Automatic annotation (TrEMBL):
Catalytic activity: ATP + protein L-histidine = ADP + protein N-phospho-L-histidine
Designated name of the protein: histidine kinase
Chief place where the protein resides: membrane
Matches recorded under Pfam families: HATPase_c, PAS, sCache_3_2, SPOB_a
Transmembrane segments: 12-37, 172-195
Lineage: Bacteria, Pseudomonadati, Pseudomonadota, Gammaproteobacteria, Alteromonadales
Gene3D superfamilies, alphabetized: 1.10.287.130, Histidine kinase-like ATPase, C-terminal domain, PAS domain
Places the protein is found: Cell membrane
Ranges of residues in domain PAS: 213-249
Length: 537
């Protein structure tokens, strides 16, 4: 069972992510909204200040008082207008920017502060500015005061302090903060509920654990020899392992087709597993014919945590694989027989040597020993140099002695080399190919009473591993050549035959290779090609 993860649980992480994400989103929204509202308020106050300044600058009493530099009249009039308009201040200055009216009377007669009077007093423009004056930072409207003949004789500045505007915006800011807290709380509740639902769906596992479980499931499915197919209640394939595709012959030119998401009836029309969806029940060791292959299948219904039926799983193996395994065991028996033959030959040689010694022919005994040893050592030396795998070398050595016991001659091409064995090719597969081809050649040569040798050639040069076995036993009958690789097809009338070339063909196909033969009246040649590198699937 999986233990609790040391990292924070999925629920806690989801809540934290939703909290941070919501906080970032809401902060952006609040800041953007506050900036928009405050900017709009500043612009509104500026336009309002400019409108008030225009009205004040055109009042006859103001124009007359500015022309007379009558600060007392201007001060009383400006304060009355300021209270009426709700402005923070109304300041009136002369053409030099000297205050004639100000909310604080002690500042009358002093220069106006802010440095933003030039456009009004010199250029005669009306505008809104934002500057720091004697009362603080404010947004204010500036309008020149003109005499009756149009000359600029002064300036009117109406303003609203920014700190007062910010105070007016505080209720809106408080409302936005409360809204953020409410939305965050709601998101946390939704996140907790969503995390709980997801965790229940994942059977209590964390996402990392589910990812690991899925990876382990896929690895397990692809390592078992059986084919596995899973479908849901609608008959759609939800999972299939590589061996199912291989066993059913559903790959094309070495490329495995991925049927996940397809309907089982479309991918495997002769399967009856979809019919079990109406009345699901387990089945064991059912013999079926799928895509032309006879298989032994097991079917099991799938159920969820609430014991609701959600689909079917089927595992199967090709029936002929059992036969294939049986025949491969018989090959092991044949190798043991080859070792027995070699032991028998050595016993005969020892008896010959013992007889020569008993007859007092010591020199002849030594010569016989030397001759036998030289032949044996030469063969051993050749196999060690030419064949790197000891299992394959042992098979060839056993077949060599078996040929001698049968009164046949097995010639091994001295230029043969079998050291660069492909990574995907096992020694037992090469033994299956070589042993069956040689056995067929032995049987054919003995049946035809031919005195011609059997030739064995192997090479690992180039991109392919090539094995060639040739006999001179009169060839294969034309009537059985088209079906020579089928199980049970044979030219012999006795013994357990009809399986050798079938095993060769099956083994070569597994190795993604090819086997060819040519036959005429003189004899038969079988050639096996095994690629050293498989194409990427």
């Amino acid at each position: 069972m999986y233990q609790q993860a040391r990292l924070p649980s999925y629920r806690a992480r989801l809540l934290l992510i939703m909290l941070v994400y919501s906080l970032i989103q809401l902060s952006i929204v609040v800041l953007t909204s506050y900036w928009y509202v405050s900017d709009s308020e500043y612009q509104d106050k500026g336009e309002r200040a400019l409108d008030v300044a225009r009205v004040v600058a055109k009042l006859p009493d103001v124009v007359s008082a500015v022309n007379r530099r009558d600060s007392a009249s201007l001060q009383s009039l400006a304060e009355e207008l300021r209270r009426t308009m709700g402005a923070s201040f109304i300041v009136v200055g002369d053409a030099e920017g000297i205050r004639l009216a100000h909310p604080k009377s002690e500042r009358i007669g002093k220069p106006m502060v802010g440095g933003d009077n030039h456009a009004a007093l010199v250029l005669g423009q009306e505008y809104v500015s934002q500057a720091k004056g004697s009362l603080g930072v404010s947004v204010r409207g500036k309008v020149p005061v003109r005499s009756n003949d149009g000359q600029i004789i002064g300036i009117v500045s109406v303003g609203y302090l920014l700190e007062k505007i910010d105070v007016q915006l505080q209720p809106y800011l408080h409302f936005m903060v409360l809204l953020v807290m409410a939305v965050l709380s709601l998101n946390m509740l939704i996140g907790w509920w969503l995390a709980q639902r997801i965790k229940d769906t994942l059977l209590g596992f964390e996402p990392e654990q589910m990812t690991r479980l899925y990876a382990e499931l896929q690895a397990t499915l692809n390592t078992i020899r059986e084919g596995v197919i899973a479908i849901n209640r609608e008959g759609i394939i939800t999972n299939v392992n590589a061996n199912a595709i291989r066993l059913l012959g559903k790959d094309q030119q070495g490329q495995a087709l991925n049927p996940v998401g397809l309907a089982l009836r479309d991918w495997l029309p002769d399967s009856d597993m979809v019919e079990l969806l109406d009345q699901p029940q387990a089945q064991s060791d059912v013999e079926l014919l799928l895509n032309g292959h006879l298989v032994i299948a097991n079917r099991v219904p799938m159920k969820d945590q609430q014991q609701n039926f959600i689909g079917m799983v089927s595992s199967f193996r090709r029936k002929d694989e059992i036969t294939l395994l049986t025949k491969q065991l018989s090959q092991i028996k044949a190798h043991s027989e080859a070792l027995r033959v070699q032991n028998h030959e050595h016993s005969n040689q020892l008896n010959t040597i013992a007889g020569l010694i008993q007859l007092g022919e010591g020199d002849k005994a030594l010569a016989f020993i030397g001759q036998a040893n030289d032949q044996f050592q030469e063969l051993i030396r050749f196999l060690i140099e030419a064949v790197e795998d000891s299992v394959i070398a042992g098979c060839i050595l056993g077949k060599f002695h078996r040929a001698r016991e049968l009164g046949l001659v097995l010639n091994i091409d001295p230029d043969s080399s079998l050291r660069d064995l492909p990574a995907h090719c096992g020694s037992e597969q090469i033994v299956t190919i070589v042993a069956n081809l040689l056995d067929n050649a032995f049987d054919a040569t003995r049946a035809s009473n031919s005195k011609q040798p059997i030739n064995l050639s192997m090479t690992d040069l180039g991109n392919d591993l090539i094995i060639e076995v040739e006999d001179f036993a009169g060839g294969i009958q034309d009537t059985i050549q088209p079906s020579i690789y089928e199980q049970g097809v044979t030219t012999k009338t006795q013994g357990d035959h009809g399986i050798g070339l079938y095993l060769v063909k099956e083994t070569v196909q597994i190795l993604r290779g090819n086997v060819e033969f040519s036959s005429d009246q003189s004899g038969t040649r079988f050639t096996v090609y095994i690629p050293k590198q498989l194409k990427q699937e």
